[in-house]
Write a structure and sequence with these properties.
Blueprint (H helix, E strand, L loop, with lengths): L1 E5 L3 H13 L3 E5 L2 H10 L4 E5 L7 H11 L5 E6 L3 H9 L4 E5 L3 H31 L12 H15 L4 E4 L6 H11 L7 E5 L5 H9 E2 L11 E2 L1 H4 L4 E5 L6 H13 L1 E2 L8 E2 L3 E6 L3 H6 L5 H7 L2 E4 L10 H15 L6 E2 L1 H9 L5 H15 L3 E2 L6 H4 L15 H19 L4 H8 L3 H10 L16 H7 L2
Parallel strand pairs: 1-2, 1-3, 3-4, 4-5, 6-13, 6-14, 7-10, 10-13, 15-16
Antiparallel strand pairs: 8-9, 11-12
Helix pairs in contact: 6-7, 13-15, 17-18, 18-19
Bound molecules: adenosine-5'-triphosphate and magnesium ion.
C-alpha cells in the first residue's frame, strides 16, 4: 500500500509518516500542490492524505482535479478543527473522510484502514464487472458463450443458484453439465461448503448405498469401521449426481426419502442421520421417457426437476464457436506450457462447419490435439479427419417454408452452380467434380433453366461469365 501525504507542514508530514509506516504502509511526501500532482502522475497510490491549506493552490482545487483524473483514488482530507465547513465541502467533492487536526494516532490508522478497504472493494467490483463483460457469465465465466441459448442458461442459473431447490441439468454428452453444476454451487450461498460428486454409473446398488449414506462397523463383511457417506461429506454444501439416470430403482427410493425428509440411514445403522445438502443432478438420458418405461421413479423425477436447466448442443449455438475456440485454445496452451497458437481461417471454417456430436468436449479434444501437432499455428492439417471433412449443411429447414421438392431442387441448383463456378464454366469438369455423367449434368442444367438461351441445344462448353449471369 502506497500512501501520498500532501501537506505543507513538515512536522505533520513527519508524524503521519511515522504512524503510517509503523503500520506497514509505504508513504511518499509532497509539500506543494504541484509536487503532489506530479508524484500522482508518476506513481500509483492507494490513498491520498490531503491538507486543504496548501501554499500554491487551494486544497479544494487539488481535490477536484484528483477526483477527475484518478476517480478511484480515495482521498482523506486533513484540516483544522476550526474549518469544519471546508471539510464538509470536501466530502461533498468526493473526499472519503476527513481527519481533524490535531489528530490522535489511532484515528489516523482507523481512517486510513477504512479508506483502503473501500479502495479494495472498488477494485474488486471493477474486476468482477470486467469479468462479467468479457466472459458473458460473471461468476459463470468458465462457461463460455454469448449465444441467446447460453444467455438463457446463465439467466436461469443465476436465479436458481440462490434457492435450495433441487436442480436438474439436462444435455447431451459434453455440453458442460458438470461445469454448470459447479458454477451453481459457486454462485450459491453454500459456495464455501463442499461440492461432492457422485458417479453412480458403475456401482452395484449396495455399494452405491454404502457410499452415499455411509455404513456402521460390522454391517457387512469388510466393514471394519464406521464410514461416513457422501451425503455426510457434502454437509453444508452441494451433492452432485452425475448421470442420475443410472441410479438403480431401489436406490432411487432411498434418494427420494433424503430429498423429502433430509435424513438418511447409514447401512447397518438404526438412527437416521441428517445432512444439510443441496442436490444437483445431471442427465443426458430422457428421464421422462425412462419414467414411462418404468425405469425411473416418477415421484423422484418430479422432485428432481423442480428447476431444469437444458444445455443446448453445440451445433445449435454455432455462433459461440469462435469464442469457444479462443478460450479453449488458450486454456490448452497454458495447460501444456505452450504459447497460444493462431488459428487459420480455413481451420476456423472447418471448425464452424462441423456438427460436433461430442459437443464442447469434442471441440476441446480436437483443439488440444491440434495444439500439440501444430507449431504455433492451427491449420486444417492439424484437425481430425472427421472435422476436416465436414461439409457445411445446407439450410435444412428453409425459413420461407419451401416444400420438400423445392428445397431439394434449391440445394441441387446450388450444388450445380458451385461446381460450374469451380470448373470455370466447363460442364465436363463440373460433372467430374459432382461425379455425374456429363449428359446428366446437362439435363439438370436444362431442367433448372441454368443454360443461357443460345447454348441450350448445341454448346456444352459455356463461357464462365455467361454462366454466372444465369446461375443462382
Ligand atoms: N460453455 C463452455 N465453456 C467452456 N468450456 C466448456 C463449456 N461447456 C463444456 N466445456 C468443457 O467441455 C468439457 C466437457 O464439459 P462437462 O464435463 O461439463 O460436460 P458434461 O455435459 O458433463 O459431459 P458428459 O455428459 O460427457 O459427462 C469440459 O472440459 C468443460 O470444461
Ligand atoms: Mg459429465
Amino acid at each position: 500500500m502506497n500512501i501520498l501525504i500532501l501537506d505543507d507542514e513538515p512536522v505533520i508530514r513527519e508524524v503521519l509518516r511515522a504512524v503510517l509506516e509503523r503500520n506497514g504502509w509505504e508513504t511518499r511526501e509532497a509539500g506543494t500542490a504541484s509536487d503532489g500532482l506530479a508524484l500522482l502522475s508518476r506513481e500509483t497510490f492507494d490513498l491520498l492524505l490531503l491538507d486543504l491549506m496548501l501554499p500554491d493552490r487551494s486544497g479544494m482545487e487539488v481535490l477536484a482535479e484528483v477526483r477527475t483524473r484518478y476517480p478511484e483514488l480515495p482521498v482523506v482530507v486533513v484540516t483544522a478543527y476550526t474549518s469544519v465547513e471546508s471539510a464538509i465541502a470536501a466530502m461533498r467533492e468526493g473526499a472519503f473522510h476527513y481527519l481533524p487536526k490535531p489528530f490522535r494516532n489511532d484515528e489516523v490508522v482507523h481512517v486510513v484502514k477504512q479508506a483502503l478497504e473501500k479502495r479494495r472493494l472498488v477494485a474488486e467490483n471493477r474486476a468482477l464487472k470486467a469479468k462479467l463483460e468479457k466472459g458473458g457469465g460473471g461468476e459463470l465465466s468458465e462457461l463460455v458463450g454469448r449465444s441467446l441459448a447460453m444467455e438463457k442458461v446463465f439467466e436461469t442459473a443465476r436465479q436458481a443458484a440462490a434457492a435450495r431447490s433441487t436442480i436438474l441439468v439436462v444435455g447431451e454428452s459434453g455440453t458442460g453439465k458438470e461445469l454448470v453444476a459447479k458454477a451453481l454451487h459457486r454462485l450459491s450461498p453454500r459456495a464455501a461448503g463442499p461440492f461432492v460428486t457422485v458417479h453412480s454409473g458403475a456401482l452395484p446398488p449396495d455399494l452405491l448405498e454404502s457410499n452415499l449414506f455411509g455404513h456402521t462397523r460390522g454391517s457387512f463383511t469388510g466393514a471394519v469401521a464406521d464410514k461416513k457417506g457422501l451425503f455426510k461429506a457434502a454437509d453444508g454444501g452441494t451433492i452432485f449426481f452425475d448421470e442420475i439416470g443410472t441410479v438403480p430403482l431401489e436406490t432411487q427410493a432411498k434418494l427420494l426419502r433424503v430429498l423429502q425428509e433430509r435424513e438418511f440411514l447409514p447401512v447397518g445403522a438404526v438412527e437416521p442421520q441428517r445432512a444439510d445438502v443441496r442436490v444437483i443432478a445431471a442427465t443426458n438420458a430422457d428421464l421422462s421417457k425412462m419414467v414411462q418405461e418404468g425405469r425411473f421413479r416418477e415421484d423422484l423425477f418430479y422432485r428432481l426437476s423442480v428447476i431444469t436447466i437444458p444445455l443446448p448442443p453445440l451445433r445449435e449455438r454455432k455462433e459461440d464457436i469462435p469464442l469457444l475456440v479462443e478460450a479453449l485454445v488458450a486454456r490448452a496452451a497454458s495447460e501444456n506450457g505452450r504459447s497460444i497458437p493462431s488459428v487459420t481461417p480455413s481451420a476456423m471454417k472447418a471448425l464452424f462447419d462441423h456438427d460436433w456430436p461430442g459437443n464442447v468436449r469434442e471441440l476441446e479434444n480436437a483443439l488440444e490435439r491440434a495444439l500439440v501437432l501444430g507449431h504455433g499455428v492451427i491449420d486444417l492439417d492439424q484437425l481430425p479427419d472427421s472435422v476436416r471433412r465436414s461439409v457445411p449443411r445446407p439450410n435444412l429447414l428453409p425459413q420461407d417454408g419451401l416444400s420438400f421438392k423445392d428445397a431439394v431442387a434449391s440445394y441441387e441448383k446450388s450444388l450445380l452452380s458451385a461446381a460450374l463456378h469451380r470448373a470455370g464454366g466447363v460442364q465436363k469438369r463440373a460433372a467430374e467434380l459432382l461425379r455425374l455423367k456429363p449428359t446428366t449434368l446437362n439435363e439438370m442444367l436444362k431442367r433448372y433453366g441454368m443454360l443461357p438461351r443460345d447454348a441450350r441445344e448445341s454448346d456444352p462448353v459455356l463461357p464462365a461469365q455467361r454462366l454466372e449471369r444465369s446461375t443462382y
